[in-house]
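Protein record
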Amino acid sequence: QDRKDFNDVYPACPVVIVYAVCFDDLRECLKIAQDNGLQFTIRSGGHSLAGYSVCDGMVIDMSMMKHVHVDVTSQTLTVDAGAAFGDIFPILEQYGLHMPGGGCPTVCVAGYMQGGGYGLTSRAFGMNCDCVLEVMVMLADGRIVKANQNLNSDLFWAVRGGTGGNFGILLNIKYQLVPLGFIWGIKITWNIDPSPGDAAQALYLIQEQYLTDNAFANLGIETILATDTDGKKKVFFCAVWIGDEAGFDMALAGRMVFSCLVDADFRDTEAFYGQTDQNHRDWPTLEQVLPAMR
């Protein structure tokens, strides 16, 4: 079970899996791998869709290194590489602070940030890697260095989006946070079968109406094609609105993908990041929408 990733499409059979708890553990792993010519990879949350967080050699798992510290005065966050968003966001919420992050609570910051890190609030606040002030990295020879705009700036540039594990073992990250209160959220799904044309129409309208240059900056969008928990393949439209209810209505009115006709699953506002407004909405049913759209 420990060798499996979140998306186990590319299974591997590691020789050993090491659960590191300190920097010395990581340094010793590097030495063993180098001395024995052993392939190794770094894993924090195991969410690499390409399977990069497992290999047939040594897996260095950092999921037990997950310290989280918030400096309220400077509105900054220092977090270990193995911390997941499920660990981070409940703490940030206490202070009304935020950074763009993953919608899945078991995703960890290390791989997410090093891949860029798009989140539902990225239109307003940038990619996750845009919010990084400083990183601490262990190099191949075991040395630990800091990198920021002024110190080891080439490493700082490379690690923010250059994908995980290419330049060293990311140990921790310092982020600049932003104030954020309640947000509105919506999720709609369309079944791909038995009517793929309706799902295709949904994708087209999302692209035409919401992904243009003049789209609302405060409306964050994620569109996903995936298999749902009920085993059905679906198109997912997820969105959050940073602002008041009237602005949310304006962003959706006249543009909303309610015009896609079949099997849309309309749900109440959902708790993205644990910061969604608790005033639930009763969205119109398909029976109410279709006569007006035809």
In short: Confidence is low (pLDDT under 50) at residues 257-294. The longest strand covers residues 219-227. The first helix runs from residue 23 to 35. Residues 7 and 49 are 6 Å apart (CA to CA).
